[in-house]
């Protein structure tokens, strides 16, 4: 046998024993087969289902025909795809499906018929698909479904029929879908749901009936069999009324959405049975009140949304049983007042939205204001926006910035208002003293505005003036020794300053008054009680200026930061009320649209506080100010602020890993100084080296061709004539022999210079 023919025979034998893989040659025309058993035929302009070659094996498992122009599915289109497990026909123009189109697809698990033109699916079309788990029929024009359509689909887990024209859900229409977990029926026209429509869906977990035409849910049997349901969406319907026990058996329900309906009434037992509910959305309805007891069955609820209703009254006990409530939204309603005790038992409440209401800032909101301050003092970062609409003098202001003394009753019954002392704001005013009818001084604390006193005839010893809410007679103030301290004296009607002897209840003359007793009111009207070496501070603005210093931040992470500050020794002046001193920390974030300062109050002698639940990668400004006797300064404490930037998400440096900024700064400065020293040394060395080289070169040339040396024709002729023959040959014959002046102007190339630079040498 010829040895050269052996390799050829071996190759032919290999072709017979190991034929080429059929998957390499069996891909459908105009399709792609990246996987041997998957055909990608999407967006190919196909108008019919492509057919495999006659000799190709039937091994395709996934066929994607989405985005084509197929209009009809015949009974023989899939006869050669008996092994298919996934078929995608979405985004075509399919208007008709033959009842026997899927007869051979007994192994099919996923069928996608969404976004076509189907108006109906013939009964029995899906019956051969006993292994089907996912069925998409969404965004078609199907008007009616019957129990026969889903017969034998016992393994179906997800069914999408949203975006169709369904109007009625018949009795036991889903009776064969015993394993169904997800059912989408949103964006239809469902007006009526038979009480047994969902009776067999005992495994259903997700039901979406949003964007339909339902007008009510009166029947208690509609959802009674959905014991495994965790999400029920009924938003964007026309529901007006919810009766009792409608959700009685939904004990595993976690989310219930009733948003954007027309609900104006709910029975007291409408929410009974929702023992596990975490989220209730009932915004965008017509509710007028939240009565007591309505929400009591929601033992585990964490989020409530009553936004955009017509709520004008909330019972103080409406949320008393909701121990796990974290988020409550009441924005865009008709609330005018709200009791602070409404949220007293909601200890884990983190987010309270009260914006967009008709808040009347009078004494009825004083309790709410104190509750807000108390919650913030406990370290809860609670953002509460209560913007006054009435009265006109407070319109646009937030309740946090309104002095409690300004929350006056505007025609409301006195029994609705309760007295209470909250953090007052020092409004930068002073005590304005005016002359009475007989020259006596009458004063009143005002917020920077001139006091208007009625001129009534009262006895001299009974003339009173008010300061910090404490009323005393003039003689009592003189006996306490504080008359005139921190006040500015004004002239009486006669143009003279009144004088009276203190022992007899009369003013002293200016010549006999102790000059250390009176101090003028500084700009802004604050009290300066720092006198005689004693730190007696009753005004919070003065307290901030003289006591607080050295505000700094430490231990910055992505969500927390520690604020530290120091204080000087001080003594609080008491004027009949307790002048307890503590601090509050204001923090605000910059660079974002939603800016609003939040406050955290400290207790006792604490000189540090840790802010929590901050946002990562955000710039914050933190400021420290004092609260003296329940009053705070209106002027922002600009001198006691510090800026910081929280770390990015996932970058948290613990306290032990936080670097010392001073050491880092010193190390950086030392490194820069050393680098400058090295650069300076290198530059100086190069400069000296260049000068030394130039000097050596100059001495060498001068030594060879100096004009001070006597010229010797013999030596010059022997040593120079050979090198400068060309130069000398251009001279006239009368200059020969060479003279001394000929060498003085001769140029030489300096070896220390680059390029064509020339240098002349002479005396």
Summary keywords:
763 residues; alpha/beta; Leucine-rich repeat, LRR (right-handed beta-alpha superhelix); Immunoglobulin-like; 15-stranded mixed sheet; four-stranded antiparallel sheet; 7 helices; 41 strands; 12% helix; disordered C terminus
Q: Provide mean pLDDT, rounded.
A: 74
CATH superfamily heading of the domain at 287-422: Ribonuclease Inhibitor
User: Major β-sheet, in short?
Assistant: 15 strands, mixed
The separation of the N and C termini measures: 104 Å
The helix content, as a percent range, equals: 10-25%
Class computed from helices, strands and strand pairing:
alpha/beta
Strand order of the largest sheet: 1-2-3-5-7-8-9-11-13-15-17-19-21-23-24
Shape: flat
* Tally of separate helices: 7
Low-confidence stretches: 6-24, 418-535, 572-578, 701-709, 711-763
Name the CATH architecture of the domain at 287-422: Alpha-Beta Horseshoe
CATH topology of the domain at 287-422: Leucine-rich repeat, LRR (right-handed beta-alpha superhelix)
Strand segment count: 41
CATH level-1 class of the domain at 287-422:
Alpha Beta
Question: What is Rg?
Answer: 47 Å
Beta-sheet strand percentage?
A: 15-25%
GO cellular component, one term: extracellular space
Domain Fibronectin type-III: 547-650
Transmembrane segments: 663-685
Keywords: Leucine-rich repeat, Membrane, Repeat, Signal, Transmembrane, Transmembrane helix
Give the gist of this structure.
By secondary structure, the chain is of the alpha/beta class. It has a 15-stranded mixed sheet, with no helix packed on it. Strands 37-36-39-41 form a four-stranded antiparallel sheet.
């Amino acid at each position: 046998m010829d040895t050269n023919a052996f390799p050829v025979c071996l190759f032919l034998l290999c072709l017979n024993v190991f034929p080429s893989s059929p998957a390499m040659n069996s891909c459908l025309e105009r399709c792609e087969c990246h996987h041997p058993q998957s055909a990608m035929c999407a967006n190919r302009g196909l108008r019919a289902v492509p057919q495999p070659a006659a000799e190709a094996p039937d091994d395709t498992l996934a066929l994607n025909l989405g985005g084509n122009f197929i209009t009809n599915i015949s009974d023989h289109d899939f006869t050669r795809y008996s092994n298919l497990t996934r078929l995608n026909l979405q985004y075509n123009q399919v208007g008709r499906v033959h009842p026997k189109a899927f007869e051979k697809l007994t192994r099919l698990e996923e069928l996608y018929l969404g976004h076509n033109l189907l108006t109906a699916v013939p009964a029995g079309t899906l019956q051969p698909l006993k292994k089907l788990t996912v069925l998409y029929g969404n965004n078609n024009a199907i008007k009616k479904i019957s129990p026969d359509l889903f017969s034998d689909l016992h393994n179906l887990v997800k069914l999408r029929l949203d975006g169709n024209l369904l109007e009625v859900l018949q009795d036991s229409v889903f009776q064969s879908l015993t394993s169904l977990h997800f059912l989408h029926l949103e964006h239809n026209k469902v007006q009526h749901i038979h009480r047994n429509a969902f009776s067999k869906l005992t495994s259903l977990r997700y039901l979406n009936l949003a964007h339909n035409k339902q007008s009510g849910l009166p029947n208690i049997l509609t959802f009674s069999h959905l014991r495994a349901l965790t999400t029920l969406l009924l938003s964007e319907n026309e529901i007006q009324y919810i009766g009792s026990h409608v959700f009685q058996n939904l004990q595993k329900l976690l989310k219930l959405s009733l948003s954007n309906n027309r609900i104006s009434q709910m029975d007291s037992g409408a929410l009974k049975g929702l023992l596990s509910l975490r989220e209730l959305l009932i915004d965008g309805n017509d509710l007028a009140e939240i009565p007591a007891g309505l929400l009591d069955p929601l033992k585990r609820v964490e989020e409530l949304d009553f936004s955009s209703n017509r709520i004008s009254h909330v019972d103080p006990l409406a949320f008393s049983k909701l121990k796990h409530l974290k988020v409550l939204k009441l924005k865009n309603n008709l609330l005018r007042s709200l009791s602070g005790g409404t949220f007293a038992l909601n200890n884990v409440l983190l987010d309270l939205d009260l914006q967009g209401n008709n808040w009347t800032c009078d004494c009825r909101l004083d309790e709410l204001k104190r509750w807000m301050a108390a919650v913030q003092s406990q370290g809860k970062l609670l953002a509460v926006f209560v913007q006054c609409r009435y009265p006109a003098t407070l319109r646009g202001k937030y309740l946090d910035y309104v002095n409690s003394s300004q929350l006056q009753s505007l025609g409301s019954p006195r029994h609705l208002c309760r007295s209470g002392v909250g953090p007052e704001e020092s409004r930068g005013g002073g005590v304005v003293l005016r002359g009475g009818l007989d020259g006596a001084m009458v004063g009143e604390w005002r917020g920077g505005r001139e006091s208007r006193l009625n001129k009534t005839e009262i006895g001299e010893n009974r003339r009173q003036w008010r300061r910090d809410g404490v009323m005393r007679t003039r003689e009592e103030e003189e006996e306490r020794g504080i008359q005139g301290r921190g006040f500015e004296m004004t002239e009486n009607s006669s143009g003279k300053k009144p004088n009276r002897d203190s022992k007899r209840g009369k003013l002293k003359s200016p010549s006999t008054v102790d000059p250390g007793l009176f101090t003028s009111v500084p700009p802004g009207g604050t009290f300066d009680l720092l006198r005689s070496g004693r730190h007696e501070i009753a005004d919070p603005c003065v307290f901030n200026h003289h006591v607080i210093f050295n505000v700094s931040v430490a231990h910055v992470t992505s969500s927390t930061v520690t604020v530290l500050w120091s204080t000087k020794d001080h003594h609080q002046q008491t004027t009949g009320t307790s002048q307890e001193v503590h601090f509050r920390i204001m923090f605000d974030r910059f660079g974002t649209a939603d800016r609003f300062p939040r406050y955290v109050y400290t207790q006792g002698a604490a000189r540090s506080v840790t802010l929590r639940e901050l946002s990562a990668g955000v710039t914050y400004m933190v400021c420290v100010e004092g609260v003296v006797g329940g009053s705070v300064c209106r002027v922002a404490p600009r001198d006691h602020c510090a800026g910081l930037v929280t770390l990015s998400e996932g970058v948290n440096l613990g306290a032990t890993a936080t670097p010392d900024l001073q050491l880092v700064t010193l190390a950086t400065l030392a490194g820069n100084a050393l680098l400058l020293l090295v650069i300076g040394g290198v530059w100086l060395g190069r400069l000296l080296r260049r000068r030394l080289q130039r000097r050596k070169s100059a001495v060498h040339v001068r030594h060879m061709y100096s004009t001070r040396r006597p010229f010797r024709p013999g030596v010059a002729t022997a040593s120079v004539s050979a090198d400068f023959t060309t130069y000398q040959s251009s001279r006239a014959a009368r200059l020969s022999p060479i003279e001394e002046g000929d060498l003085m102007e001769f140029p030489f190339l300096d070896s220390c210079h680059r390029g064509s630079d020339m240098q002349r040498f002479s005396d």
